[in-house]
Write a structure and sequence with these properties.
single chain; two-stranded parallel ribbon
Length: 267
């Protein structure tokens, strides 16, 4: 939905940010070689998505608990996350730069949507899809991966049980507020795991549309943080250790020199 001018502005911002990010990593010699834990898994179906999401959590030693500050965690794993100020019509994108993965996400969208977008884009980066799958099928599978990673099968079944014919909105809100995933994604997840029948899935979305609650703004609120300060920390470390000058630090942070000096204090 974005125009060419908006797309170009996003690209220019991302390129500028990554150039500064890569520069401070090279100055501090902290370049991280990213390793894809899922490179040997070929995705043909939703069953493969379950295997991949479980493998990623296992490899990254996350367990079955909710992932708090997903963005910070991914940065620690070597994924560069770029948050941009963009129109609501833009969610995110993913690409590779110099052999490391990059996810761009709109910082103006709500936390639940941001978390889902980040993992959806992560799926594009990490998963290898069968040549038989078209673009629409791949997008759907990336959605499935986001749901599976944010809300593991064992965790959802622990909340709901293995079979349900009805679920209260209050139960869904509790899961949303704990795992940071939308009610819609929870219901799709429950359907994909055969916990609920198709009739419940259809009924849920009919009610959501009828009550004008597609944005779920009045259906629970996930309280958390989704941001990373890694780039800023690297620049401040280099300035504190006098590896770079204050002038260079302010340049890397896109700050006025005097503004940087006022906010900088060494003990």
């Amino acid at each position: 939905k974005l125009g060419k001018k908006d797309i170009q502005q996003i690209k220019e911002f991302v390129i500028d940010y990554l150039e500064r990010y890569i520069e401070i990593e090279r100055i501090l010699n902290v370049q991280y070689k990213f390793s894809n834990p899922l490179e040997t898994i070929l995705i043909n179906s939703i069953d493969d998505i379950e295997i991949a999401s479980q493998e990623l959590r296992k490899n990254w030693e996350i367990g079955m608990n909710p992932v708090s500050n997903l963005i910070e965690m991914l940065e620690d794993k070597g994924v560069k996350i770029v948050e941009i100020d963009a129109d609501q019509s833009f969610d995110g994108l993913a690409t590779w730069v110099e052999n490391f993965p990059v996810i761009v996400v709109n910082k103006n969208i709500d936390l639940v949507r941001k978390r889902f977008t980040v993992v959806h884009e992560l799926a594009h980066l990490l998963l290898s899809f069968s040549e038989n799958l078209n673009e629409k099928s791949i997008e759907k599978l990336c959605h499935n991966f986001a749901g599976a990673f944010l809300l593991p099968e064992a965790s959802l079944k622990n909340f709901l049980g293995v079979k349900r014919s009805h679920i209260s909105i209050q139960e869904l809100i509790e899961i949303k507020e704990y795992f940071g995933i939308s009610l819609s994604a929870i219901v799709y997840r429950a359907y994909n795991l055969n916990i609920i029948p198709e009739s419940f899935l259809k009924g849920f979305f009919i009610r959501l549309n009828k009550d004008n609650q597609r944005d779920e703004s009045n259906l629970g609120k996930y309280v958390g943080e989704e941001s990373s300060s890694r780039f800023d920390r690297l620049v401040l470390k280099a300035a504190s250790e006098e590896i770079i000058t204050f002038s260079k630090a302010s340049q890397l942070l896109n700050q006025n020199l005097e503004e940087f000096r006022r906010g900088f204090e060494v003990f």
